[in-house]
TrEMBL record, chain A:
Domain of life: Bacteria
GO process terms (BP): transmembrane transport
Topology of this chain in the membrane: Multi-pass membrane protein
Any one cellular-component term (Gene Ontology): plasma membrane
SUPFAM superfamilies: MetI-like
Keywords: Cell membrane, Membrane, Transmembrane, Transmembrane helix, Transport
Name of the protein in question: Sugar ABC transporter permease
Family recorded in the similarity comment: Belongs to the binding-protein-dependent transport system permease family.
TrEMBL record, chain B:
Membrane-spanning segments: 36-57, 99-120, 132-152, 182-207, 228-251, 288-310
Name this polypeptide is given: Transporter integral membrane protein
Topology of the protein relative to the lipid bilayer: Multi-pass membrane protein
PANTHER family with a match to the protein in the record: ABC TRANSPORTER PERMEASE PROTEIN, LACTOSE TRANSPORT SYSTEM PERMEASE PROTEIN LACF
Domain ABC transmembrane type-1 intervals: 95-309
A single GO BP: transmembrane transport
Cellular component annotations (GO), alphabetically ordered: plasma membrane
Entries under SUPFAM superfamilies matching the protein: MetI-like (SSF161098)
Primary localisation category: membrane
Region feature (Disordered): 1-25
InterPro entries: ABC_transporter_permease, MetI-like, MetI-like_sf
Record localization: Cell membrane
From TrEMBL, chain C:
Species assigned in the record: Streptomyces scopuliridis RB72
Signal peptide per UniProt: 1-24
Pfam families: SBP_bac_1 (PF01547)
Keyword Signal: yes
Keyword Signal carried by entry: yes
Official protein name in the record: ABC transporter substrate-binding protein
Cited Gene3D superfamilies: Periplasmic binding protein-like II
Keywords (A to Z) from UniProt: Signal
């Protein structure tokens, strides 16, 4: 990146390029994030404003009425806590068991790995609705219905295909020469995995973890049918309580509750995004 | 099925070449040594009990007349469901819509996410904020996403009509989700929007694995941006791209929740995705057997398409 | 080849093990109740508005205080996903004892053997308080599978100022508009206020995102019913002029008179409200409970009136699908469950629940209550129209859901959009439709 003797023309081009990048990025962000702005703004609007034919980007007369109504109507904090417990446990567990399995599937080309690949794809292709009832019966027999543990188990298994599929890709990109070097130094398979492969996987791990977390956080159907007791309900189920028959929605409180449901995932992203930037691999290759 | 077939053909006798191992690890079962089993089992057991079991049960329903309710006993009917399905013109029409939907959403998702990932991989200011905001669609619960977009598309009070009207591009309000020709494009746009973050994150993580040195070396050689992308970035990224695109395709083909909230399959069946068909068949009309047959047909078709798409990857895997 | 078949064998062996494990345990019985003889019943409620949820919870509390041996646990459900939730828990044998739902769901659930026949348990007082027309909505064959307790007619919600400007006769439940009058009034209410050549005030906005139930239920007002029984008692769809005249009227208003906007067709009821408040639409045909939203969102100073739907001849009639309370077939305490239902549906309790969700009770005693006979928010109109409510013809018809999704919804949507005429609509609804119904009646 040393440009000490850069010609003016190159400089101009570079600045233009940079500006272009910022503009493009801004375009993307407007496209992707404007519904959040809309959601937040909706959550501060009065019912009269929500019924207006000329909606404004910013509330004319902002108020906390919707938040108050949402908190009064539903146990938002408690359900958010349930969702958090379930999503964190499910994502951590599923990634922890997926990493070793993905490693084996890549490094040993056997029938087990092949069956695994077929299963991953078929499990994603087959209609989910037809699996629900048999799965429900299995869980009933494991006596984990109406418990967060049962939900965690389901989410772990449900996240595994994606985790395995993606992690395989990331494992493949780890140069085998590094492992061979470690093996030469006398490290066993497990040690190689932990000390050589794992650090290099960091960005992929974070991506997979994020994915599992968000999937579990937002999942709705299993949470609906597995959990009955009010004290076990998760956020995604609580949100549908703001919907009535025939698509009628209690829009203001729903928006308020949704803002609260969206924040944890965004915080989680904000914290973890740094880890997506690995740069570790290049260092390792150099060394 | 063709997936397994092509793989089986490609594995004549050898089982790939695992990296060097110590003599103690040579004892094997199914081509895996003890360490490997140890690493595999924690994932394998829950999968067998909670996924493979229910999945095979679901598949087996396709050959029965299973129905909701306890009044009718289930009987084995062989291929009857599949034969009935052949004449179900509504299903095939929805299949066509499903393919248009899945291909367009997957392609657009990939192109846009690739661009975004490349931008986010640059050393720009406020990158952390941009990265977080780019994930907004992902963080919002699906029900809410549907309702928000209904508001955006609302023909009287929607932001879209308002904005287009102010720009002078529109003289009369369009009812995006209820217009026979705009409805499908309108839901495709939402599908792309909703699925972009996942793809972006995966690609971004993949970009991190592209060795910096190679890119810098290419830069020193005077390679332009495009050349650098095609010769250095793309080859390193390709496995990740194939993996996420194929999964995206499957997911998109199988999704219906979002579209259901938006249009309920209307207007006039223009956005009835095939998985909505299977869902209604199973959960609304209680025809489990027939729905499973639909599922099986979808699996078969997707499998063929994926095999074509992934044939190279599969060959490499098997080699 | 050999490789593959071996693998398949392995997989199916694994699955068989897992499944047999599951099934073996699945046959195990349920756990006994606690030893002190106290039983707990689960009550899945779909109350929606806060007032109604509160009223439900208060009644449960009151019951629990007076019935120490039969405790009721309140579980909140949502209309959005009730069918899927119930089907899964029925199939999994984990259904709640007392189930709040609507009559259209009961057909298939009763047929599937999931719901208990309540005939033997219902107290006489309750049977007499709810009119036979309502009981007909939950009776199939010889069984009664639910207690119909809340109902709502479709009404016209109109902007008072626009009605006054147009100087039209204000209809009452005793003297509703005829459909012909309604068409004329709609024309009077359709205007181009700023003279720019495009209509900016429409007489009526038909929200047809879900066109089927309203099209069928309104056909009763002109003497139609669409679903008939043939000589053998089999269900059959017919679509003659009495059945189709309301649909044709809507088509006329949208595509010829242009007194109803085309873009309303894609809307749900709530979607039409902003345009209504802004004076774009003068009248909205909506369910009675929409008054809550109207009242909540109307700008200050906006006056609105509740009018009865127009009628073809004689007293106003329309089909309705009431909300119901049922008992799961698996419940081991059916008598106690029905006792609780009877408690919940006593006239004065029904009244509370109905008012909380802006609905009407089915109880004849409750309907006479003064609080339902005020002019405020049009309660009086609703209570007066209630006498003309008949069971929706779709109730008890197996295959209705499939007909609705696959045939009727797209057909009506395209018809109202002007894509084809009445002949093709009839062909699709009746000819294609009967093929579906026949499959369910072999």
């Amino acid at each position: 990146m040393s440009t000490t003797s850069a010609l003016p023309k190159v400089r101009v081009l570079r600045i233009a390029g940079r500006t272009g990048q910022y503009v493009a990025l801004l375009g993307f962000l407007v496209f992707l994030a404007f519904p959040l702005l809309w959601l937040v703004s909706t959550s501060f609007k009065s019912p009269q404003e929500l019924g207006s034919i000329n909606p404004k980007w910013l509330p004319v007369d902002p108020g906390l009425g919707n938040y108050r109504a949402a908190f009064e109507a539903q146990p938002l904090l408690h359900s958010a806590l349930n969702s958090l417990i379930v999503a964190v446990s499910a994502s951590v567990i599923s990634v922890s068991i997926a990493v070793p399995a993905a490693y084996v599937m890549v490094r040993y080309k056997t029938r087990v790995s092949q069956a695994g690949t077929v299963w991953i794809l078929v499990s994603q292709m087959f209609p989910f609705v037809l699996v629900i009832i048999p799965l429900f019966l299995v869980l009933k027999n494991l006596r984990v219905i109406d418990s967060l543990v049962g939900l965690i188990i389901v989410y772990v298994v449900w996240n595994l295909p994606f985790s395995l599929w993606m992690l395989q890709g990331y494992v493949k990109s780890v140069p085998r020469s590094l492992e061979e070097a470690a093996a030469m130094d006398g490290a066993g398979r497990l040690r190689t995995l932990v000390s050589v492969v794992l650090p290099l996987l960091a960005p992929g791990l974070v991506a997979t973890l994020m994915f599992s977390f968000v999937t579990a956080w937002n999942e709705f159907f299993f949470a609906l049918v597995l959990l009955k007791s009010p004290e076990n309900q998760t956020m995604s189920v609580i949100l549908t309580r703001f919907l009535g028959a025939e698509g009628v929605a209690d829009l203001g409180p729903l928006a308020a509750a949704s803002v609260l449901a969206t924040i944890p995932s965004l915080l989680f992203f904000a914290l973890l995004q740094r880890r997506l930037v690995g740069g570790m691999l290049s260092g390792a290759v150099k060394g | 099925m063709s997936l397994t077939a092509s793989r089986a053909k490609a594995v004549p006798g050898s089982r790939g070449t695992p990296p060097p191992r110590t003599p103690a690890q040579r004892r094997q079962a199914l081509g895996l040594d003890r360490d490997a089993w140890f690493l595999l089992l924690p994932a394998l057991i829950p999968i067998l009990v909670l996924s493979v079991g229910p999945l095979l049960y679901g598949v087996s329903l396709a050959f029965t007349d299973a129905q909701a309710g306890r009044t009718a006993a289930t009987q084995f009917v062989g291929l009857d469901n599949l034969l009935d399905l052949r004449h179900d013109s509504l299903f095939w029409e929805s299949f066509r819509i499903g393919l248009i939907w899945a291909v367009s959403v997957t392609a657009l998702q990939f192109v846009l996410a690739m661009g975004l990932a490349l931008l986010l991989n640059q050393n720009l200011r406020f990158r952390w904020l941009a990265r977080t905001l780019a994930l907004v669609p992902w963080a919002m619960p699906e029900v809410v996403v549907g309702i928000m977009w209904r508001l955006v598309y609302h023909s009287d009070a929607g932001v879209l009509n308002k904005t287009l009207g102010q720009l002078g591009l529109l003289h009369e309000n369009v009812d995006w989700l209820a217009d026979l020709s705009y409805a499908l494009p309108a839901v495709i746009a939402v599908g792309v929007w909703a699925g972009m973050p996942q793809t972006t994150v995966v690609l971004l993580a993949g970009l991190q694995n592209v060795p910096h040195e190679l890119r810098e070396a290419a830069q020193l050689d005077g390679a332009g941006l495009w050349r650098r992308f095609t010769t250095v970035t793309w080859p390193a990224l390709k496995p990740v791209v194939l993996a996420i695109t194929s999964l995206n395709f499957i997911w998109n083909f199988n999704s219906f929740g979002l579209v259901y909230v938006l249009t309920q399959g209307g207007p006039g069946g223009q956005t009835r995705l095939p998985m909505l068909f299977a869902y209604e068949e199973a959960f609304k009309y209680g025809q489990f057997g027939y729905a499973a047959a639909m599922g099986l047909v979808m699996v078969a078709v997707i499998a063929v398409l994926l095999t074509l798409f992934l044939r190279k990857k599969l060959k490499e895997d098997a080699a | 080849m050999r490789v593959r078949s071996n693998r398949m064998k392995g997989l199916s062996a694994c699955a068989a093990t897992a499944l047999s494990l599951a099934l073996a345990a699945g046959c195990g019985g349920s756990e006994p109740d606690s030893t002190d003889g106290r039983i707990t019943l689960e009550f899945l409620s779909l109350a929606w508005q806060k007032e109604s949820v509160d009223a439900n919870k208060a009644l449960v509390k009151q019951w629990n205080a007076t019935h120490p041996d039969v405790q009721v646990k309140y579980v909140q459900g949502s209309w959005d996903n009730i069918h899927d939730q119930l089907l899964t828990s029925f199939e999994g044998g984990e259904a709640p004892d007392i189930i709040h739902d609507d009559a259209s769901d009961l057909t298939d659930f009763a047929n599937g053997g999931y719901l208990a026949d309540l005939s033997d348990y219902l107290p006489q007082s309750l049977r007499e308080d709810i009119p036979q027309a309502s009981w007909d909505t939950t009776t199939y064959g010889n069984g009664t599978y639910g207690v119909p307790f809340l109902q709502e007619p479709r009404v016209l919600i109109a902007a008072t100022a626009l009605l006054q400007q147009a100087d039209v006769r204000i209809p009452t439940a005793q003297h509703p508009w005829t459909w012909g009058e309604f068409e004329d009034v709609s024309k009077k209410l359709t205007r181009d206020r700023n003279n720019d050549g495009t209509t900016d005030q429409y007489g009526v906005a038909w929200s047809m995102k879900e066109p089927v139930a309203q099209s069928v239920n309104l056909s009763l007002s002109t003497g139609g019913q669409i679903f008939y029984k043939d000589a053998d008692g089999k269900n059959e769809i017919r679509y003659d002029s009495a059945d189709s005249s309301v649909a044709q009227l809507i088509d006329r208003q949208v595509n010829e008179d242009r007194t109803a906007p085309k873009n309303g067709l894609g809307m749900s009821g709530s979607d039409t409200l902003p345009g209504f408040f802004a004076g774009r639409y003068a009248m909205l045909p909506l369910n009675f409970s929409f008054r809550q939203q109207v009242q909540q969102q109307a700008p200050k100073g906006f006056d609105w009136t509740v009018l009865p739907m127009p009628t073809g001849k004689g007293e106003p009639t329309q089909g309705t699908i009431p909300q119901t309370l049922s008992v799961s077939q698996d419940s081991r305490h059916k008598r106690s469950a029905v006792d609780f239902i009877a408690f919940l549906t006593q006239a004065e309790h029904q009244l509370q629940l109905a008012r909380g969700d802006w609905l009407l009770p089915t109880s004849t005693k409750a309907l006479k209550d003064p609080s339902l006979n005020t002019d405020t928010y049009g309660w009086k109109t609703g209570a007066a129209v209630a006498a003309g409510l008949r069971p929706s013809p779709v109730l008890g018809v197996r295959g209705y859901a499939e007909w609705k999704d696959k045939i009727a919804t797209p057909a009506y949507q395209e018809f109202y959009n002007g894509a084809f005429g009445i002949a093709e609509l009839r062909e699709r609804l009746a000819d294609d439709g009967n093929r579906i119904l026949d499959r369910y009646q072999r």
